[in-house]
Write a structure and sequence with these properties.
Number of helices: 2
Oligomer: single chain
Strand content: under 5%
Radius of gyration: 22 Å
Order of helices and strands: HH
Number of strands: 0
Helix content: over 70%
Distance between the termini: 73 Å
């Protein structure tokens, strides 16, 4: 009987942990992604003969 009560509690804890992880700022990944996009854009603007 207690197992059925434990399943929603564990699910709620998992959702709370995931929610806190998903809402935190991921600034380092964004900066690296923007730098990669800038390099890609520069490469596309270059003349192929160079």
């Amino acid at each position: 009987m207690l197992t059925w009560l434990l399943i929603p509690v564990v699910a709620a804890l998992g959702a709370a942990i995931w929610g806190s992880w998903a809402s935190k700022s991921h600034t380092m990944g964004d900066i690296a992604e923007l730098n990669g996009y800038a390099r890609f854009r520069d490469a596309m603007e270059r003349d192929p003969a160079e």
